[in-house]
Design brief:
Order of helices and strands: EHEHEHEHHE
Largest sheet: 5 strands, parallel
Number of helices: 5
Helix content: 25-40%
Oligomer: single chain
Structural class: alpha/beta
Strand content: 15-25%
Number of strands: 5
Distance between the termini: 34 Å
Shape: globular
């Protein structure tokens, strides 16, 4: 099971589905991004192995059981618009829901503007 913290247009989720992931839990809280995702022919539609939630992952992750995920991708928007996604408390929650020995990829946006 894979956690996609900031689903965006869904390209990571599409790649995971092609790679035969058994379940992908993707979160996106920005309604404008979800609208773009619906309009984009290359964005995967939710359903099947892809569960897409219109929710704030920083709140949702607190309700997930320990050791639930085999992998996590955390690719947040820049700090200036989503600083909570860079907090130590949130990273602690990601570590908690990750299975022992599993992978977590964090790709912070390095833009300054």
């Amino acid at each position: 099971m894979i956690l996609d913290t900031c689903g965006g247009l869904g390209y990571f989720a599409a790649w995971c589905a092609r790679g035969q992931a058994r379940r992908i839990c993707s979160f996106e809280k920005n309604p404008d991004v979800l609208w773009l995702r619906d309009m984009n022919p290359w964005s995967p539609a939710p359903g099947g192995v892809l569960q897409l939630a219109h929710a704030d992952v920083t709140a949702a992750v607190t309700t997930i059981a320990d050791g639930s995920f085999d992998a996590i991708l955390h690719d947040p928007p820049r700090f200036g618009i989503a600083g909570e996604l860079y907090s130590g408390a949130f990273y602690g929650q990601l570590a908690r829901v990750l299975k022992r020995g599993a992978s977590c990829s964090i790709t912070p946006a390095l833009r300054t503007n």
